[in-house]
Amino acid sequence: MTFQEFSKRVMVSVEDLCREFYRENRATIKIKKEETAVKNLVTIVNTTLKLSYKKGFDAMSLRDLSGESGLSMGALYSYFGSKEDLLSMIQYHGQLAVERILRDHIDQGSGPREKLRSAISTHLYLSEMMKSWFYFFFMETKNLNKKYRKISVESELMTERVITDILEEGVKGKIFAVDNIPLTGSIIKAMMQDWYLKQWKYTQRKISVEDYAGYVISMVESHILKKA
Question: Quick check: 63 and 77 in contact, CB under 8 A?
């Protein structure tokens, strides 16, 4: 599947995630008109990601967020009781969406080789669509306290588990030859992360996300496919 085809099939946006958050927490959110609440939540999240990229989430204050977003402190407190609540929302709903889309796009009726290809391309395409979220998950939460770092680590391990489960299936089916499945899964995950953490390299070299996905798949298969 090309990135363009994937983008048409997968409709994920900040608005979708904010609407999901609003509907799950409407009892505690003081703004009761859904469209107004979702619009403001989108502004809050986008501004948070922007400020986090510029100065770091830990250094960002709600007053900074208020000034940059144009929303009053009172308006912010209509949605969140603290900066930590905001962080939880971004982490939980963003990572839930990633896991849901990743698992939905792995055809359970296909073989392990096809599943692995789908897992790699889906993760990379999704990271291209949600660049600021993926960067935030990795770069920001590792600097926070233990509770929030744990959430980020669990998300990373979730992706690795998807990969290692496929590798195990392929080994059992005698399609893959892998001596160390956990390490192989970790290396595959690291190659996928390089796309959104160091994308400037690939932009300079005019490498598209499709090119990168294809190369990673080719490289992985050359290492793990069982020789006839």
Answer: no
